[in-house]
Write a structure and sequence with these properties.
- With 171 residues, this protein is an alpha+beta fold.
- The protein is built from six helices and five strands.
- A five-stranded antiparallel beta sheet has the order 1-2-3-4-5.
- The longest helix is centred in the middle third of the chain and has 16 residues.
Amino acid sequence: MRGILLKDEFQLEEGWKWSAPNYDHKGMVCWLAHFKNHVGLNFFKGSRIEDLHGLYDEACMDKGNRMVKFRSNEEVDEEKLAFYIHEAVMLNVKGIKVAKKKIEVDVPEDLVYELDRNPKVKAFFDSLAPGYKRDYLEWITSAKREATREKRLATTIEWLGEGKKKNWKYE
């Protein structure tokens, strides 16, 4: 697979990210992932590439990524694969991006009340990316008991006041 990706016609540069070989041309194009029973060729902008030859694995359609799985060397059709690689490179050459998924965040009333009472805390919460907000919201709203929810709400206000994201301990 690496031999195909490194052919001169694609003009890809090989690098190493996320413990896997990655291939770039004016930005990330694809990467290889090995598994127990197959090798996956993941295209970063695969959602923007027509699945002309039906190679995409339905189970691996996450965000903009698309994966082509190979369980044996016999499954690799270089001619068909070249279409996807050329298309992925052209997306980068043209500067085409994958649309980002908008994360909607509904803030529960008790948190809204606490944020309104604490302008500094509210300012920090409002500055967080939607995913970081969601971390706090899921933690608060997943409490099974009211006492647990109240404790998590108080901790949330404390940590936000200190400028901390929910998982600050792991940063």
